[in-house]
Design goal:
The complex is a heterodimer of chains A (about 100) and B (about 425).
Chain A lengths: L1 H9 L2 E5 L4 H13 L4 E4 L6 H10 L8 E4 L2 E4 L1 H9 L3 H5 L7
Parallel strand pairs in A: 1-2
Antiparallel strand pairs in A: 1-3, 3-4
Chain B lengths: L8 E8 L3 E9 L10 E6 L11 E6 L20 H6 L16 E6 L28 H53 L4 H42 L3 H28 L1 H6 L5 H5 L8 H8 L8 H37 L9 H35 L2 H26 L9
Antiparallel strand pairs in B: 1-2, 1-4, 3-5
The chains are: A alpha+beta (about 100), B mainly alpha (about 425).
InterPro entries (chain A): GlrX-like_pln_2 (IPR011905), Glutaredoxin (IPR002109), Thioredoxin-like_sf (IPR036249)
Pfam families (chain A): Glutaredoxin
Keywords (chain A): Cytoplasm, Redox-active center
């Protein structure tokens, strides 16, 4: 739990992913399209990956990956990110952290 | 409507019991143009002084140039035995003036889709009795006409039910063929090792798909009804409050479809992605198992004029976000294809044991379900955002435009399938 929270607050836009996960890849592409660069943590390449997965589930994610944090706060998984983007809320939320990404 | 503004020829036939059909009269109703919706009432004044005792019926031919009709009568009418007509024969004028006091009302259904359908007319029992009283009272005639109309109506309903049954059977057949093809292909790939388990599995898949097809058939019917309601409501200028109810139920109907798709995707995601459950023209535009949200916006926006400046801006932003989200999902899907492909191709081909790759590939394919769900989620979000940006009236027009668009695509598919074969070259 600590590691996830810590990593999540280290940068403005943080994405927890797995290198084999294609939906995570789609989210990465989306960020690329809107011109932001997230800090990506690949759980399958992290020794504590399993523990982090469990932590993410406990935080309320429907699936452990992809999990997006903005400004240290959990936004959610693909569903939430897509909804936020379509409603026009994603870019404003990212604006304060744009330079930090 | 196919028959509006087309001149028609009306052929009056008589049936001799044993001797078949013989045309006795043709009457050009060219001056009269049919109006109205699916049925038109055509008033015909008949002058039949023949002594035939059987029943007359009417065939409508589309073409002025074909002396004999090429079509089997699709919705018949017939309704009065000739001997009764003969009695009022003197009352009718030869030049077919429909305004004479007593006219024979003939109901015609203009649908020509079922040209090969056998006649389903209601025939009154012919009698050979010519000694009738001079005339029947008017209300009896009216009652008879009303009965005829009722009979015609029932006939149409029966036909509709039958067609629906045929449609369902057709879908079932397509699904079974698909199933068979899959089973054959998989049988070859698996080398017979896992074939037993596959066949067992396809039993459960079948029921999920069959259930979906039934539900989807009903969904399309309800959709059609809703479109008609919306059209009527918009033309009748009902209040915004009442319109809002229609809009909500229209939106809810789409959400219902996404729920249905989510369920069947769990049973067989390839079925959903293949789009085999849709008509061919719809399938042409298919993107990850359904319509492309940005395409939807392109169809809708021209129908929604006038939009305020604010609305135009918001729709523009929505279009852009949609496009970006679609690109992201499309590329994610491509990545999935690459991954599955390399997994399946990987490993030594010299050896027969491909089981480990298959297991990994299966795992990857599970992700396909998430993609289909995400695509549907995108469709749902797009609809919801549009309903937020638009006024109630605009949203109603939007739903009508969308529903009508898909309806036309389906009609196009049917026309395409039933188009006449190309003439063979000499």
């Amino acid at each position: 739990m600590d590691k996830v929270t810590r990593l999540a607050s280290e940068n403005g836009l943080v994405l927890f992913s797995k290198s084999s996960c294609c939906l995570c890849y789609a989210v990465k592409i989306l960020f690329q399209e809107i011109g932001v660069t997230p800090t990506v943590h690949e759980l399958d390449q992290d020794a504590e990956g399993r523990e982090m997965e469990r932590a993410l589930m406990r935080l309320g994610c429907s699936a452990p990956v992809p999990a997006v944090f903005i400004g240290g706060k959990l936004v959610g998984s693909t569903n939430e990110v897509m909804s936020l983007h379509l409603s026009g809320g994603l870019i404003p939320l990212l604006r304060p952290y744009h330079s930090m990404c | 409507m196919p028959f509006s503004n087309l001149p028609l020829l009306v052929y009056i036939y008589q049936i001799w019991e044993e001797e078949g059909i013989e045309a006795i009269e043709t009457w050009n109703v060219g001056e009269q143009e049919l109006e109205g919706d699916e049925e038109s009432k055509l008033s015909i004044a008949l002058d039949i002084n023949s002594t035939c005792a059987k029943v007359a019926f009417v065939i409508i031919s589309k073409s002025m140039n074909s002396p004999t009709p090429q079509f089997v009568p699709s919705r018949l009418s017939i309704y009065e035995p000739i001997h009764q007509i003969g009695i009022w024969g003197e009352n009718f004028k030869r030049n077919g003036n429909p305004n004479t006091s007593t006219s024979l009302i003939v109901e015609v259904d203009n649908k020509l889709e079922n040209e090969s359908e056998t006649t389903s007319h209601e025939m009154l029992a012919p009698t050979n009795n010519y000694e009738q009283e001079a005339s029947k009272p008017i209300d009896k005639i009216q009652r008879r006409l009303a009965q005829n109309r009722e009979a015609a109506r029932k006939s149409r309903l029966r036909k509709k039910a039958y067609v629906q049954q045929l449609e369902n059977s057709r879908l079932k057949l397509i699904q079974l063929e698909q199933e068979l093809q899959r089973a054959t292909q998989q049988g070859l790939y698996m080398g017979g090792v896992l074939e037993g388990s596959h066949i067992g599995f396809s039993g459960t898949v079948n029921s999920g798909i069959a259930a979906f097809e039934m539900e989807y058939g009903r969904w399309v019917d309800v959709q059609h009804r809703q479109i008609c309601e919306l059209r009527t409501a918009l033309n009748a200028h009902i209040s915004d409050i009442e319109l809002r109810i229609l809009v909500k139920s229209g939106m809810g109907h789409y959400f219902e479809l996404f729920r249905m798709k989510s369920t069947v995707a769990k049973a067989d995601v390839f079925y959903v992605i293949s789009g085999v459950w849709k008509t061919s023209a719809e399938r042409f535009f298919s993107w990850i198992g359904g319509f492309r949200p940005s395409e939807l916006l392109k169809v809708l926006v021209p129908q929604l004029d006038p939009l305020t400046e604010q609305q135009i801006l918001e729709v523009c932003n929505l279009k852009q976000s949609c496009q970006q989200a679609e690109d992201a999902l499309s590329q994610g899907l491509e990545k999935l294809q690459e991954t599955v492909s390399s997994t399946v191709a990987g490993g030594p081909v010299a050896e027969v044991s491909y089981i480990p790759q298959v297991a990994t590939a299966m795992e990857k394919l599970e992700a396909l379900v998430s993609f289909v769900n995400q695509a549907d989620h995108l469709r749902q979000e797009t609809l919801q955002q549009m309903s937020r940006i638009l006024t109630t009236r605009q949203a109603a027009r939007g739903l009508l435009a969308l529903g009508e668009y898909f309806h036309r695509l389906r009609a196009l598919s049917t026309l395409w399938v039933t188009r006449p074969p190309e003439p063979s070259l000499p």
